[in-house]
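Reply to dn_fold:

You asked what the input looked like. This is it:
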Amino acid sequence: MKVLFAAAECTPFVKTGGLGEVIGSLPKELKKNGVDARVILPKYGAIGEDFRKQMRLLREFTVPLSWRQQYGGIYELVWNGIPYYFIDNEYYFKRDAIYGFGGAMDEGERFAYFSKAVLESILHLDWTPDLLHLHDWQTALIPVFYHAFYRYSPLYEGMKMILTIHNLKYQGVFSSNLLTDVLGIGWEYFTPDRLEYYGNLNFLKGGIAFADAITTVSKSYAEEIQNPYFGEGLDGLLRARTSRLFGIVNGIDYDSYNPEKDLSLPYPYRDNPEEKQKNKAPVQERFHLPVGKEHMMVIMVTRLVEQKGIDLIMRVLPEMMEEDVQLIIFGSGEARYEGFFRHAEHLYPDQLRIHTKYEDELARQLYGAGDLLLMPSRFEPCGISQMIAMRYLTVPLVRETGGLKDTVQAYNPATGEGDGFTFHDYNAHELLYAFRRATQLYKDQEAWGKLLKNLLKKDCSWSTSARSYRELYEKVLHGGGS
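and this is what came back:
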């Protein structure tokens, strides 16, 4: 089975968030399941020179984009046994940033080009995929282009398309002028059941309409996005395609996220909470906090945006600070949130710190030192922080939504079952109540140790999800996807 992943980012070459993590780790696990998985992405100027030197030019070709005839080059680099292809076009991709560089029309044209170039590049590879696995709005035009231009060509005939939605909030909405000027397709595609979206052009909507199957990154999120509150204006189309909509939870790379071998940690560990505790003092010293194991270290590794439940924390922060805790906020985002926590640092000098510069090594040290991860998201398609936290024996406190609901089971002291703390409604005092349950349990280190033992049994690797993807590939290739 030959599967080509098409995405806008991929670790270790270039990433801005969870999408890059998925594309960098899922193909490796699929390979273990007998899938010939490969990846294609733009050859951004932001990709490091050490990787660029290893790339080999395979072919140069022309990409038709409406009236344009654009240059396309395809480079190859094999990394960890997986072939990666890079679409080269300096006009579109040699930028200081990988997103949001030239305004909306430029962004739409860049990824329309990339989508068309992915299909054109198949003509120039010595390898033809059975199935294209597409990710988010940046590649969602591929099924539209396939339907308009390629489906009857012998090389492409019978090729299947799966589109994964990582976050429905980001859809690629642009002026309808792009339809003929950039996409080069007819107005018959600009209808409410295809690309039209309140008078504009919606790339993701087109992908949902034309893909053979749609997946999203947790079962709960697949259910949630079919109702108006979470559906971001596309719930009707998603309900219409419900027989082709599947939820498969993400995993994390257990080779990369391994506290036993993580060189970022001063004191690597695996199954000994006492060894983990040694990592707390270096972090406390770095952030000039009082040193001591008795202080419960609470971490947030997140973007500071409304989706992440920051408003809930702001509402009850004074009550949270009444507990013997140290709260470290690691992330950047909206100025109002950054400003609030900067001010809070002065109000709680022995308890709270904010760090807005992303450093991967420091993020891992926080997971290694933390006792509790806060993740009270308003919505969360899957989430990765809670899975990394559990791998590092840091207990997650999450709201029961999307992938958080699917990956964290509320701890029950009576039965000893569960692996975290949860609350249901998007309500600040429900968060506070769950937070106090966590701080009370932490005071009883014997009881806390039982909870940590449950985390040791938790499997958030890609193994189960990769098998689910392979089964879905089989279904789409041989059974139509429904």
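Residues 190 and 238 are 18 Å apart (CA to CA).
Hope that clears it up.
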